[in-house]
Each structure stands twice: as C-alpha cells, then as structure tokens.
Amino acid sequence: MIQSTSKLNSTLSMSFALIFVLFFVACGEDTVNETKILPKEVKQVVPVEVQILSKGPFQTSQIFFAEAHPIDIGQLISSSGGQVNIALAENGERVKKGQKLCDIDAAIHKTALELSIAQQGLAENEYSRQEQHLASTTGSKVMLNQAKVKLLQSKQAQLMAQKTYNEAICASPISGRIGAKYIQSNQTISPGSNTYTVVNSNSIKLHFGVSENLIREYSKGSQVLVTLNNGHQVKAKINYLAAIIDPQTRTFQADIRMTNPKKHPVQIGESIKVQVFGKKRLSQWVIPNSSILNFAKSNAIMIAEDNKSIKKEIIISSSNQTHSQITGDIKEGDLLIITNQHRLANGSLLRIKEFNETTTISGATSK
Predict the structure, then answer these.
(1) pLDDT in tens, 165-175
(2) Is the CB of residue 240 less than 8 Å from the CB of residue 254?
(3) In the chain, which ranges are continuous DSSP H helix?
(4) Which of the two ends of the chain, N or C, has the fewest CB atoms closer than 10 A to its terminal CB?
C-alpha cells in the first residue's frame, strides 16, 4: 500500500512539471508572435504655417543714434582784451539779441565809438560840400574824390569801433541761452579770449555717422523717422551727407535739421534714435527675417510642396528690421514655411495648419 502511494505521488509531480514547462513555452511563443506583429515606426509630421511667395517692393532702413546740436550758435570774443569789470550772465540763462552780458573796459571803447561817429559826421558834411562846389563849377572832381575817400575811411573806422564796443559789453548776437561762460568779474583777459557762447535750440540738427557698407543706400533727402525720448515720432529727412569719409571714425557724417518741439524739447547733447530709409526697389523677392535659416556658410529657407519640406539656399541682398531681399531658386507661388522651419529637414512630412492667400509677401517695407 505504501509503495502504491509513492508511485502515485511521483506520477503527479511529473505531470505538474510537464504542465509548468508547457505553460512557459506557450508564453514564449506568444511573446515572439507579439514582437513580430509590432507596427513599423511612424515618421513625425510637423505642423507649419506658410505664406505665398510673391515679388513686391522693398526698402531698406537702418537705426542710428544721433547727437543733438544747435544750429544757431553765437561765439563771443574780446579782440582787445582788458579788465572784466563785471560778467552779468550765467550758464543756462536766457538772453535776447543785443543784450549786454559783460563790461570789459567798456567806457574806453564807448568813447572811441563816439569819436568815430563824430568823425564820420564831419566826413559826410565835407563830401556834401564838395558835391555842391562841383555842381556850381567852383569845385573839382579831385577834391570830391578825396572827400569820398575820407568818408569811406570814417565809415570803416566807425564799424570797427562799434564791433570793438559790442565785444566790450559782450552784446549777444542771437536770442537763446548761455551755453558757456568763460570770464569772471574783476578778471584780466588777453586779446582774442572767448567770453560767452550763446545757443538757440529752437532749430536743431541731429548729427550721426553712416558706415562705409551702408552709404550707397542713402543720399541727401533720404526720409527719416525721428523717435524722441518721450516716444513721440517726427518725420524728417537728411539735409547733409558728406561726400568724403571721416578718417577718424571711418563714417560719412550726416545731419538732420528739424524744428525743436516746444512741448517736449530735445536737449542739446541728447542722444536721439533715428530710422533712416534707404532706396526703394521694385519687384523683388521679399521674405520675413524670421523665416530664414542661418548656417555657418550659407542661408536657406524651407518651401512646402506635396506635404513635404524642401530646403532651398538663398542669398540675402539687403535687409531691414523685419524683411530681407533675397535671390535663389524660388518661383512665384511657392509656399514659404514661416513657423517650425527649424524642426525640419529636407523631405520632412508636413501638416499645413494655417494657410491664407491674403498673406502674400509683397510690399514689405520697414515700419
């Protein structure tokens, strides 16, 4: 009886082992079958937006920062020098044309002026008398000419005396503000010394330099958009553009002349942003700068065709802040990819998620 039970247990153990082996074999076959029926890897489809390529006008523009200078400047000089009895005006003070700003031995020069005026009066009387004598045949042409010479000499002397006196009182040549003061009361100055600088900032010029590689785009009369520091914009133009390069800055000097706004005036020496517009070119390939792929030695764009991307190399002729003028193997109606182009390779699958025929790229000019 014990022997029969032992044989039964042995048989059951072998049966369970066989079932266990068959189970793992079956699982292995299922795993193999599952591996065989896995689908192939699907290529990624990139969503993009496109615009239609079309030729249109193009205009370059460039941002410069110009320094504000006054147009009207009065520089006062004392040709005679002498004792500064008093300096009346201070820096920044408003003055009127002809206003007395100082006294540099003014009494002496006033006397000299009065003397020259008296001498001119005598010369005028003598010339008039000689004219009457010549008319009555009692005079001569020689005497009249001599009187005329003395009259002209007296006029010249009076003009010089007036100029010296004006310098002695520092008479302001223009209305404006004192830009610089060079003298102090009770000071002795030498002949030819500067006394005051008077500036009128009602009209200003914005001065800047144009680099060699940009000069061909601009000329006298080129349109300009001036942005004041309060955000207000003023239209203007280039009034002066040098024909010879500045050897120190290697730039061509340019000026923009404009009336200084009364509400928010530009301060002398202030840096002002100016956008200068270059030559306008018609019928050009123009694309957004954001659509260009920049590589180490070349530039390219992506064109959509049959739901695939095609890489096309381009040459950039000129650019402004938003668009570029290009040449390359492109044609009218090509679909320029303007988003996600950096994720694409040549032949990538596309899904055009936005397409609007009214977004034709033409007439692209700087704003």
Answers:
(1) 999 999 999 99
(2) yes
(3) 2-36, 106-135, 141-168
(4) N
How far is the CA of 260 from the CAs of 58, 68, 70, 235, in angstroms? 31, 10, 10, 12
pTM for the full predicted model: 0.62
48-58 tens-digit pLDDT? 999 999 888 98
Query: What secondary structure letter does DSSP report for 268?
Result: T
SS3 of 124-191: HHHHHHHHHHHHCCCCCHHHHHHHHHHHHHHHHHHHHHHHHHHHHCCCCCCCEEEEEECCCCCEEECC
Closest to 150 measured CA to CA, from 140, 139, 162, 158: 158
| The CA-based dihedral angle spanning residues 341, 347, 353, 359, taken in that order and rounded to the nearest 10 degrees | 60
- Token digits of residue 346: 């040549």
Q: Which residues pair with 74 in a beta bridge?
A: 198
Name the residue type at position 201: S
Strand order in the sheet with 82-87: 102-104, 82-87, 187-189
Judged by DSSP in three states, 47 sits in: strand
